[in-house]
Amino acid sequence: MAGQEYEKNFKPGEVIFKQGDDGSEMYLIRTGKVKISRSAGSIEKTLAIIKEGDFFGEMAVIDGSPRSAAATAVDEVNLLIVDRDAFKSQLKDNPMIEYVLETMTRRLRDTNRQVEFLLIRDEMRRVVALLVSMAKERGAQTAEGIVVDFPYDYPALGGLIGIDASKTEEIVKKLLTLKLIRIEDKKLIITSLVEIDDYLRFITLKEKFSA
């Protein structure tokens, strides 16, 4: 149904889309309520309950990225669904609007990502998850490892994920001891993305089974 709009009904509790799903459509609520939520491990956080006249799912339509949150019908819901081609066709004559929307979407995704990190209880896992995310999204691959695109600074790094500077410094020093990261010229370098990813999985499982 490229370039078209159509309607669809959802029953109470029915999942409209999951966090991480590919997205090519946005939704306008004609009737009913929809819950928007994000998860981090076993923790789920409800971000909003939206109702008739509201829209959602627009970020994936604008930038083509996976869904940043899940959407679930709270009660009987009727949605008007607009696919990416139909949405983009409305913008083709005004590239400035498209640019503004893409910028807003990028900023919202950054905010959503911070919310996800804050949902992680263990502070070590929170720091490692942030570094892995930054390496994958904005890291520069070099012969020595991946340079994270962020000036090395304890207060600033900890501030991104709600951890004080002294605790952030303690965690970073442990990662240095484990040789998972290096610091050179006030830049943080991840020695091996595979190894720090493995470490993240290890501490995630450790936290899960020691709870």
CATH fold-level name of the largest domain: Jelly Rolls
Radius of gyration, in angstroms, nearest whole number: 20 Å
Q: Please state how the strands of the largest beta sheet are arranged side by side.
A: 1-8-3-6
The total count of strands amounts to 12
- As for the number of domains, it is 2
Category from helices, strands and their pairing:
alpha+beta
Task: Please characterize this protein's 3D structure.
- With 211 residues, this protein is α+β, with helices and mostly antiparallel strands.
- The protein has two domains: 5-116, Jelly Rolls, CATH 2.60.120.10; 122-210, Orthogonal Bundle (Arc Repressor Mutant, subunit A).
- It has seven helices and twelve strands.
- It has a four-stranded antiparallel β-sheet with strand order 1-8-3-6. A four-stranded antiparallel β-sheet has the order 2-7-4-5. Strands 9-10-12-11 form a four-stranded antiparallel β-sheet.
- A hairpin with a 2-residue loop joins strand 4 and strand 5 (43-50).
- Helix 4 (123-138) runs antiparallel to helix 7 (193-210).
- The termini are far apart.
- The mean pLDDT is 81.
Brief rundown of the structure:
This protein is of the alpha+beta class.
Mind sketching the topology for me?
Layout: E1 5-10, E2 15-17, E3 25-31, E4 34-40, E5 43-50, E6 55-56, H1 58-63, E7 70-73, E8 77-83, H2 84-89, H3 95-118, H4 123-138, E9 140-142, E10 145-151, H5 154-159, H6 165-177, E11 181-184, E12 187-190, H7 193-210
Antiparallel strand pairs: 1-8, 2-7, 3-6, 3-8, 4-5, 4-7, 9-10, 10-12, 11-12
Defining key terms:
single chain, globular, 211 residues, 2 domains, alpha+beta, four-stranded antiparallel β-sheet, Jelly Rolls, Arc Repressor Mutant, subunit A, 12 strands, 29% strand
